[in-house]
Amino acid sequence: MMKVLIVGCGAVGQVYGLALQKAGVTVGFLDQSAVVKKLIQAQEQRGLLLFQVSHKHRNDPIVYRLKDYRVIADAVESQHFEPDQIWFTTPSQVYYSDWFHDFLRQVPSKRVVCFSPEGSRPEFLTEGMGDRVVFGGTTFMAWQGDLEGDGARSEGVNFWRPPLAIPLEGTRESCREVANLLKQAGFRITFGKPGSHSQASATAVLTAFVAGLELSGWSLRTYRKSPWLRCAAGAGRESVIGQLPRAGAFTRALLSSPVLSACFFLAALLLPLLFPFDLERYLKFHYTKTREQTVILLNVFMKDSIDCGVPVTNVQSLVKSLLAAG
């Protein structure tokens, strides 16, 4: 039986764990000591509770229990687990740390899957990794808590799996192995070209949008009328051009500040209609929790744009204001 070690047992990690276990995979979870204690306690209480919401099951989500998983406390126990694959469902800051590279040197596995929002970056890869690492994007939404009573459950992880494919980037052979496993777990897959910056570009736009929303008080209605919308749209343009320095005239026209401002306005107006939960509350909950990651991503994209000679006035304004707001 295949073994997958999931590093990070937050909401996203638990959803992947549930899907993999249903596909017949032996799942191990590695996390910090406080989370390890909670995982052990959950095992003693019949497992982790997960609730799948959808448009059909908005107020009565489908209930799952994730149990019979292995709890891993450190690198030594990870070695003894002998994973075939290691999946990282951690915030961005982990990938920039020395711990990340040290851990991969200590714990052998055939494949490593990094669900990093910014996709593949040179600083994530060290000499000797070869085609061991695959980068993927998470296309479902998961959170812990009830979003202030909006139909979700407070006693476990809530998640929504829209019919979106998970993008994978890496060598053909490594992606094929990971894709086969994801398909067995019920996910659709799409393959990105090596060196593609599509995932980073999408994250750059989303990060700018969310930063502007926070500076507008987490209100989508206020955001539509706020000067932060135009600033965020400009920041999105600056960040994406840094990822796509060779973009053609048509792409650059689509990324113009007026076009992106209109897109941001329409997104703030229409997106809440497409989700089976309160999107505004979700965005506030999730991105308040991952605020450090938001600032890191803005700085990463800003550096890339500066290296490409792209002015970054709007990105700088977002970062400065977020830091000032604490």
Mean pLDDT value: 93
Oligomer: single chain
Q: CATH first level of the largest domain: which class?
A: Alpha Beta
Distance between the termini: 47 Å
The biggest beta sheet, please? 8 strands, mixed
Question: Percentage of helical residues?
Answer: 40-55%
List the helices and strands and how they pair.
Elements: E1 3-7, H1 11-22, E2 26-30, H2 33-44, E3 48-52, E4 62-66, E5 70-72, H3 75-81, E6 85-88, H4 92-95, H5 98-106, E7 111-114, E8 133-136, E9 141-144, E10 157-160, E11 166-169, H6 172-184, E12 189-191, H7 198-215, H8 220-225, H9 227-243, H10 249-254, H11 257-270, H12 279-289, H13 291-307, H14 313-325
Parallel strand pairs: 1-2, 1-6, 2-5, 3-10, 6-7, 7-8, 11-12
Antiparallel strand pairs: 3-4, 8-11, 9-10
Helix pairs in contact: 7-9, 7-13, 7-14, 9-11, 9-13, 9-14, 13-14
Provide an overview of this structure.
It is globular, with a radius of gyration of 20 Å. It has 326 residues and is of the alpha/beta class. 41% of the residues are buried. The protein has an eight-stranded mixed beta sheet with strand order 5-2-1-6-7-8-11-12, with helices on both faces. The chain has helices spanning 11-22, 33-44, 75-81, 92-95, 98-106, 172-184, 198-215, 220-225, 227-243, 249-254, 257-270, 279-289, 291-307, 313-325; strands at residues 3-7, 26-30, 48-52, 62-66, 70-72, 85-88, 111-114, 133-136, 141-144, 157-160, 166-169, 189-191. The mean pLDDT is 93. The chain contains 14 helices and twelve strands. Helix 9 crosses helix 13 and helix 9 crosses helix 14 (313-325). The chain folds into two domains: 3-191, 3-Layer(aba) Sandwich (Rossmann fold), CATH 3.40.50.720; 198-325.
